[in-house]
Amino acid sequence: MANTGKKTRGKQKIEIKMIENQDDRLITFSKRRLGIYKKIDELSILCGNEIFFIIFSPAGKPFTFGQPSIESIANRFLNGNIHVIDNTCALIEAHCTVRINKLIKLYNEVQSQIDASNETQKVLAQQITSGTDSNRWWETPIDQLNPRELYERYSHFSKLLNLYLSEQEDCNRFFNGCSNRSW
Fold it and tell me: Domain MADS-box, which positions (predicted)?
């Protein structure tokens, strides 16, 4: 029978001690640093903590991580004041708020224009389906008109009257010219 034993050692607990080989130590640090950052970020999110983390590589290079930012936590720590406001963050937040308010205002204006256009479309569609023709404006009873519509009707009738009088004058000139001629 064949040996069916495990070929790998599987997941085993590693003894915690300093790695002797310098190259192995650098590789392990590089691989585990991102894992440490991820764990710190998760801790910050889950607990709502502000975290500042600094670690030095075996070569002496510093690596930092801060949530919400390194500067705000360092200022808070150095000043000993819990309520220190990070001016940069406050400025950025104020700018974002102003920009969002402008976009909301623009959105509301566009939405109002769309609503007005939709209302106009509904009125026109209703006129088409009810059989009323906007070209037959003179047939609407006067008592059903608002002041603006009354003024428009007056304006239309004035234009019509002026057009009629102009045409009548042209016709009179034509016929007067024809009667003076001898055929």
Answer: 9-69
